[in-house]
């Protein structure tokens, strides 16, 4: 994981040093996450979390840019068991790499979409049998919109999980959970 972060950083800094079309910046904000999918008598509720990291904006013309990012991001849900007796927070932390295509159709408005790969780097799960069942890789599709004025952007995204969060059981139920995350945040371009 450390090698991946270092490689991503070195490549981006190398490209940025050779081009005036590449801008770097930092971003952060809140996440509202839940597990989506077939739940079969399992109740889930949203969790509040965060995302933070850096981005590289590569201009491809006047209105189009490619924006790879490196973020630390949380997801998960509050889950009530099938007997409605216990509610636990299942919070997962990922190193995420979204690669967004940004389009500025009119004025300060921008639209963005693209794929995201998430690599699980931590969790708060204390049940050892469940912890081993959460997948290390999370693939998602991302879409969002926002406003950019000079070097400051304010935006929102929806991240739809494409891969299952894990293979595990709650009693006799095997949920098909996928991450669903609403992100809102601010980005500052240097």
Task: Describe the fold and architecture.
It is a single chain. This protein is mainly beta. It is built from two helices and nine strands, in the order H-E-E-E-E-E-E-H-E-E-E. The protein has helices at 2-17, 128-131; strands at 22-36, 43-45, 47-59, 64-80, 87-106, 109-123, 137-149, 152-161, 178-189. It has an eight-stranded antiparallel barrel. A hairpin with a 6-residue loop joins strand 4 (64-80) and strand 5 (87-106). The longest helix is centred in the N-terminal third of the chain and has 16 residues, at 2-17. The chain is elongated, with a radius of gyration of 18 Å. The two termini are 26 Å apart.
Offer a few descriptive terms:
mainly beta, 8-stranded antiparallel barrel
Helices and strands, with pairings:
Layout: H1 2-17, E1 22-36, E2 43-45, E3 47-59, E4 64-80, E5 87-106, E6 109-123, H2 128-131, E7 137-149, E8 152-161, E9 178-189
Antiparallel strand pairs: 1-3, 1-9, 2-4, 3-4, 4-5, 5-6, 6-7, 7-8, 8-9
Which range does the strand content fall in?
Answer: over 45%
Q: Please report the total strand number as a whole number.
A: 9
Which percent bin holds the helix content? Answer: 10-25%
**In DSSP terms, counting alpha (H) and pi (I) runs of 4 or more, how many helices?**
2
Short description:
With 190 residues, this protein is mainly β. The protein is 11% helix and 62% strand.
């Amino acid at each position: 994981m450390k090698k991946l972060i270092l490689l991503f950083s070195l490549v981006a800094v190398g490209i940025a040093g050779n081009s005036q079309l590449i801008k770097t910046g930092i971003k952060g904000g809140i996440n509202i996450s839940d597990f989506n999918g077939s739940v079969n008598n399992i109740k889930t509720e949203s969790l509040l979390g965060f995302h933070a990291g850096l981005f590289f904006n590569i201009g491809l013309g006047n209105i189009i840019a490619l924006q790879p990012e490196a973020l630390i991001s949380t997801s998960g849900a509050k889950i009530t068991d099938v007997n409605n007796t216990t509610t636990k927070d299942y919070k997962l932390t990922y190193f995420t790499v979204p690669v967004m295509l940004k389009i500025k159709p009119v004025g300060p408005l921008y639209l963005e979409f693209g794929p995201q790969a998430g690599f699980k780097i931590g969790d708060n799960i204390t049940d050892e049998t469940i912890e081993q069942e959460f997948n290390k890789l999370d693939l998602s599709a991302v879409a969002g919109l926002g406003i950019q004025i000079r070097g400051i952007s304010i935006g929102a995204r929806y991240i739809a999980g494409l891969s299952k969060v894990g293979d595990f059981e709650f009693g006799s139920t095997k949920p098909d959970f996928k991450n669903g995350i609403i992100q809102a945040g601010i980005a500052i371009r240097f």
